[in-house]
Design a protein that fits this description.
The radius of gyration is 20 Å and the shape is globular. A seven-stranded mixed β-sheet has the order 1-2-9-6-5-3-4, with helices on both faces. The chain starts with a strand and ends with a helix. By secondary structure, it is an alpha/beta fold. It binds nicotinamide-adenine-dinucleotide and zinc ion. The site of zinc ion has 4 residues, from α10. Nicotinamide-adenine-dinucleotide binds next to α2, α4 and α5.
């Protein structure tokens, strides 16, 4: 049994990239296990968890990361008689994890929770680091808390039922870890990309590598204060702007991040900061995962610029961005010229 240990301040928890173990949850000294899942995940995998306790099922999709579902889960917990020693068990992708984690963070001023991450995005990114929260009409993840889980399971077998498009989009985050933190990991992904299928040992290794890289960064900067954690934002400044301009239902997050990484690597190259060959390497990877590499319409550029300059990280006509200096290392550049950004967005 090989757990990867995540550390955040005084807290320590095991991330297990293997089959979920009912006995390990039962071994946690909780007064009861309260499950939260979504319809898709529960239909595909509910039988594995049914014996553990009652389950509150939310509709699938980002729309469930909302005040109404948060309230519904809290009232459900209270109605079930959950107490300070109850354990919330999230079973689902990033949406269920963020929502259930925030429910646990706020019920009785915070109770313990554990996470069975069932989407590739959750397994290699969202389930680690203790960021929990919900969206409001004014923005994504506007309300939330840092609340670390007590245990995380990432079973690659759960991905058999994950829709293909979600699987491919999550690969953008794996590519991100390579560019931002580990050149060897990016090379390896290029080598084995044809073999990265569900059930393959390569996929298990990919998830473990991402978990290790993310736990390392989280340990260095658990509360997102030192700037270390910002290195994981490569591709995300432009990616988020694209999601905002499109209204969040056209592209999946990973798809927008793929476009964002190509744009930001192009910006870095043009500033003379980053490697010249990186944009074309990223385009090849995008092609092999059938991910987009351009902004679908020039009309999106002006709302994207607006989103980026309003971004709380940017001041005036300057935009803060995590840019690669070489493959495997990035820096947070606080003041990228907005004109230069716009030029690249028109060109890609
Ligand atoms: N907390 C963090 O640090 C962090 C990091 C990155 C992203 N996120 C958040 O994660 C969310 C996106 O996560 P996501 O992509 O997992 O979305 P998601 O949870 O909506 O899952 C994607 C879709 O796949 C379905 N699904 C998940 N696992 C499945 C399985 N094994 N079988 C069949 N269907 C399955 C879901 O029902 C959903 O329809 C966003 O809200 C984002 O803000 C959080
Ligand atoms: Zn992301």
């Amino acid at each position: 049994v090989t757990a990867i240990w995540a550390k955040a301040g005084a807290e320590r928890y095991a991330v297990r990239v293997e089959k979920f173990d009912v006995a390990a949850v039962q071994a946690i000294d909780a007064s009861g296990v309260m499950l939260i899942s979504d319809e898709n995940v529960w239909n595909a995998h509910g039988s594995e968890f049914r014996g553990l306790g009652p389950c509150c099922i939310v509709p699938p999709g980002e729309k469930s990361k909302c005040v109404a579902q948060w309230e519904r889960c809290l009232e459900w917990l209270a109605g079930q008689g959950a107490d300070r020693r109850s354990l919330v068990l999230a079973v689902g992708g990033g949406v269920v994890g963020d929502l259930a984690g925030f429910v646990a963070a706020t019920y009785m001023r915070g109770i313990r929770w554990a996470n069975v991450a069932t989407s590739l995005l959750a397994q290699l990114d969202a389930a680690i680091g203790g960021k929990t929260g919900i969206d409001t009409a004014h923005g994504k993840n506007l309300v939330g808390a840092f609340h670390q889980p007590v245990a995380v399971w990432c079973n690659p077998e759960h991905l058999r039922s994950l829709p293909e498009r979600h699987f491919r989009a999550a690969m953008a985050e794996a590519i991100k870890y390579g560019v931002a933190l580990d050149a060897g990991f990016l090379n390896w992904q290029e080598e084995v990309r044809g073999r990265l299928t569900v059930g393959s040992p390569q996929l298990t290794r990919l998830i473990k590598t991402c978990v290790r890289l993310k736990t390392r960064i989280v340990a260095q900067d658990p509360m997102e204060r030192s700037g270390r954690r910002a290195l994981l934002n490569f591709g995300h400044t432009v990616g988020h702007a694209l999601e905002t301009a499109l209204g969040y239902d056209e592209l999946l997050h990973g798809e927008a991040v793929m476009v964002g990484m190509i744009a930001e690597s192009e910006i870095a190259a043009q500033l003379g900061l980053g490697p010249k060959e990186l944009p074309s390497r990223l385009r090849d990877l995008a092609d092999s995962w059938e991910l987009p590499h351009k902004i679908a319409s020039a009309r999106l550029i002006s709302p994207m610029m607006e989103a980026m300059t309003r971004d709380k990280k940017g001041t005036g006509k300057r935009i803060a961005m995590t840019l690669p200096t070489e493959v495997g290392s990035c820096v947070l550049v606080p003041d990228v010229d907005a004109e230069a950004v716009q030029r690249v967005l028109r060109g890609i």
